[in-house]
Amino acid sequence: MKFDPVGQFLQMLSVERNAARLTLDAYGRDLADVCETLGVDAPGLLRLGEADIAKYFETLEARGLASSSLLRRRSAIRQFYRFCLSENLIEADPSRKTAAARKGRSLPKILSRAEIEALIRAADGPALKEQSVSANKKPAHQAIRLECLIEMAYASGMRISELVGLRLDAVARDPAYLIVKGKGGVERLVPLNLSARAAIKAYLDIRPHFLPRGDKANPHLFASRGKEGHLTRRRVGQLLDEAALNAGIDPARVSPHVLRHAFATHLLEGGADLRVVQTLLGHADISTTQIYTHVAGERLREVVESHHPLAKRAHEAH
């Protein structure tokens, strides 16, 4: 059998890091592209030098690949050669000096605490309980559900797929934490604050409104009459757009993932440890979490420049 270092690398990611199938497929394609571009087979990757890897990234930039694609290629190559080095397949890492273009990398969109509060107020279910339904207002049960979704997303940092996929039994007995199965089937604990728990209680009272006809045994927390049996990610995005408009926020700045960004950034702004945030988000690599330190740092810089007396004095001098 032909020696295949790429296959061994992907097997390691699958077995030891429980990487998702989509990640394994993407990394496999990335490394296959290196082979094709540089004219080598998989074992030939072990004979490449720093100049070869640099040349490869030059060709990628010439292709006009998106910054996100360049970053993933860099991650695949760096991780592959680190694996080869740890297995004594190579004596030096030819990718260690390679810096894929980062200039196009954009920081995550986030919302301020005040904007999050405005979103929640815009979907304030309890305030609608005593109000009649009109052409301009959602039924109270829909507003209560949306408030619960926003509260839970912001309190936990869950991915939207994790949130809409929650089972009803996950919130039995009013838990302070949920056990969530994330990417690669890895389980983690995510927190629920008192506000989110109160929103869940209010939602559970009206949940029967969303049950498919004759399906009282529906196992999903956010049950729906759609074919999937639960609320879809797309529908949550549409509901958030409506809430954003009601809150006076540009809908382009709001999405389910933005609530996750806000969760992470606001934790770091409050002094949370980066490793803790990594665990709460379910990131396998801390470099993925580190992007939020840049966001938090930029926001803190803006606060200092806006409110610090010396900074204000310097601004006035100009």
What is this structure's SSE topology?
Blueprint lengths: L4 H12 L4 H18 L11 H14 L3 H20 L26 H10 L2 H4 L11 H17 L3 H5 L12 E5 L5 E5 L2 H13 L26 H15 L8 H14 L4 H8 L4 H4 L1 H17 L1 H9 L1
Antiparallel strand pairs: 1-2
Helix pairs in contact: 1-2, 2-4, 5-7, 5-10, 7-9, 7-11, 11-14
Low-confidence stretches: 99-105, 125-136, 311-315
CATH class of the largest domain: Mainly Alpha
Spell out the helices and strands N to C. HHHHHHHHEEHHHHHHH
Number of strands: 2
The largest sheet is:
2 strands, antiparallel
CATH fold-level topology of the largest domain: hpI Integrase, Chain A
How many structural domains?
2
Which range does the strand content fall in?
Answer: under 5%
The CATH H-level homologous superfamily of the largest domain: Intergrase catalytic core
Q: Briefly note the structural class of the backbone.
A: mainly alpha
Description:
The chain has about 325 residues and is mostly helical. The chain folds into two domains: about 5-85, Orthogonal Bundle (DNA polymerase, domain 1); about 115-305, hpI Integrase, Chain A (Orthogonal Bundle). About 55% of the residues lie in helices and about 5% in strands. It contains 15 helices and two strands. The chain has helices at about 5-15, 20-40, 50-65, 65-85, 115-120, 125-130, 140-155, 160-165, 195-205, 235-245, 255-270, 275-280, 285-290, 290-305, 310-315, and strands at about 175-180, 185-190. It has a two-stranded antiparallel ribbon. A hairpin with a 5-residue loop joins strand 1 and strand 2. Helix 5 (about 115-120) runs antiparallel to helix 7 (about 140-155) and helix 7 runs antiparallel to helix 9 (about 195-205). It is elongated, with a radius of gyration of 24 Å.
